[in-house]
Structures are given as structure tokens and as C-alpha cells.
Amino acid sequence: MVRCRLIDTEATRKTPAIEAVPRSAPFRVLILGGTGEASELARRLADQSDLSIVSSLAGRVNQPKIPEGPVRIGGFGGVDGLISFLQNERIGAVIDATHPFAARISASAELACNRLGLPLIVFSRVPWAKQEADRWHVVLDTRSAAAYVAQTPGRVFLAIGRQQLDTFAACSNAWFLIRAIDPPDVSLPPNTKLILERGPFHLEHELQLLRDHAIEYIVSKNSGGPATYAKIEAARLLGIPVVMVERPQKHSVPSINSVDGVLATLNRLQPIAEFCTP
Ligand code: NAP
Predict the structure, then answer these.
(1) Interval 27-36: pLDDT, tens
(2) Disulfide: which of 133, 153, 187, 197 matches 173 by Cβ 3.0-4.6 Å?
(3) Residue 190's domain spans which residues?
(4) Ligand 1 centre from 99 Cα, in Å?
(5) Which ligand 1 atom sits closest to the C-alpha of 32?
(6) pLDDT tens-place string over residues 258-269
């Protein structure tokens, strides 16, 4: 199999033996997605004639927002499956633009890229920062958030998506408002109202939601980005505390926190002639 190996031209300056040349053939880029930013990357790269992209979605939601251009859906089958995909599809670089809490696919991406010597560009949104009027209780993970809830009875807006809801299944002393895109397929706590809604959410909507359900505190992941930030603003305005779950450590390589930055980094990657075919 012939593929392009790519090098970063900044790194190249420190390794004079390797000479980067202009791209002679389109090279393939895998975008690991499931986020608005991944879709924006796909849209902005779709017309770039020296690149050929493929977006990948996990297939978690019933009606995913499909990015522009070629898309594949479903898990790869762990690191080995991802490695096979990268080889079979002659992928020359990977962009990990998955959600900050999607840690397993990111670990697979890093391992696979390391093993194949492929460049990995990591996008990560800037986390939300606590403002002066915010009443945040920061916890390390959803398990710690559930432990907090178990000791703090009340009316809780549980806004963590649907995958780790079972962590709260034993919290019988609280009442939960749970919001998800699709119905959860894990055990829920006994006193629960479920609403199915897809963001982005606006401030007025979130204020109304919190008031209508007499919410006493929120459990949220620190996802960053604007699409789900309105609930944090609404909590601030209403003086409602937020149990804020910190992000997992995903990568050992530094991340880039803007789509423009990812595009600039991608454009600095150039193929080495001996590894390329037209
Ligand atoms: P995860 O725990 O990191 O991944 C679990 C497994 O799902 C992975 O091992 C992989 O299966 C598969 N997978 C995940 N993302 C994939 C992708 N983009 N393309 C192909 N396979 C993928 O991820 P998660 O937390 O379940 O999230 C799933 C997807 O939803 C992610 O793509 C993420 O961007 C998006 N998302 C997640 C959240 C969140 O709060 N976690 C919120 C919004 C959107 P294999 O091991 O079989 O390859």
C-alpha cells in the first residue's frame, strides 16, 4: 500500500535531512466528529482540491446531523479497527474534533496515529470559565457528581447527555429533570422527568425551563462552546448552583481551540515525496 506520510514544516526546519515538497496528489484526512466544529471543518475542507476528507460519526443518535462530504458511521472496533481503517482508506492525517468528554475514541486515535506515524491534529473547545456570579461546585467526574447529589436532595436538572445517566440511578432522594436528544437506554433514577430536545438552547428557553421545574441545582459537564452554555448563564441569573463536571484528560499532544487554527495546522502539513504517489 502506498500512502502519504506527512510532516509538519515547523518540525522540518529542525530536521534538515527531510525535505518537504508541494503536494502532488490529494491526500486523505479523517475527521473524527460528532460536534458542530467537526461539521464546520468538513464544510470548510470540502472544496479544498488538494485534500480528500472523510468524516466519522459514532452513530449514537437516531438522526445525526450529517456533515458535508463523505461520511462513515459507527465504531471502528477499537484501536486495531481504526488502524485497519486508516490503512485501507489511505488516510494521511487525522483530525480529532470529537466532544471533550469522548475520551475512548480520542485514546484510540492517538494510539493508532502513533503506531502508523500519522499526524494527529486535536481540536478542543475552550472550557467554560467560572464567572464572578457563578455558584459552581466543580467535581472530577460524573461519579463524583452522583456522590454529591446523593448527599444533596433537591430538584436537579441533570444535563449530561444520556450515556452516563445510570451513574445517578441510585439517587432516590432527588428529583431529576433529564434532557437528552434520544431516549436513554440505561437505568434512570426513580424520580425523573425526561425531555427530548436537541440544542442549541437559548437563554430565554433555559430560564423558563429552570423556573417551570423549580430547579434547585444543575449537574453539567464542562463541554465548552456556545450551543449549551445558555443553561449556565440562566443558572447565574437565577442564582442556581451548578455541579460542574471537569473534562477528562484526553491527549498527550497539545490541542488547538479554534477551527481556523486546525485549518492552519493542516495546511502546514506537507507530504514527503518518497512516500507519495500521484
Ligand atoms: P467515546 O466514549 O470516546 O467512544 C466510545 C466508542 O464509540 C469508541 O470507542 C468508538 O468505538 C466509538 N466512537 C466514538 N466517537 C466516534 C467517531 N467520531 N467515529 C467513529 N466511532 C466513534 O465517545 P462518546 O462519549 O460515546 O461519544 C460518541 C460521539 O458523540 C463522539 O463522536 C462525540 O464527538 C459525540 N458527542 C459526545 C458527547 C459526550 O458528552 N460524550 C457529547 C456530544 C457529542 P470503537 O472503539 O469501536 O471505534
Answers:
(1) 899 999 999 9
(2) 153
(3) 136-245
(4) 8
(5) 18
(6) 999 999 999 988
Q: Using one digit for the tens of pLDDT, what is the confidence trace for 41-89? A: 999 999 888 899 999 999 999 999 999 999 999 999 999 999 999 999 9
In a domain, 131, yes or no: no
163 lines ligand 1 (CB under 6 A): yes
Distance CA 86, CA 91 (A): 5
Cβ(81) – ligand 1 distance below 6 Å: yes
Place of cell 530536521: 15
Q: Is the CB of 100 under 6 A from ligand 1?
A: no
Q: What is the pTM of this model?
A: 0.89
Say whether both 97 and 148 belong to one domain. Answer: no
* Protein residue with least CA distance to atom 42, ligand 1: 99
Whether 22 maps to a domain, the answer reads: yes
- Pair (80, 143) in one structural domain: no
Instruction: Please indicate whether residue 108, judged by its CB atom, sits closer than 6 Å to ligand 1.
Output: yes
Q: The domain spanning residue 208 has which CATH number?
A: 3.40.50.720
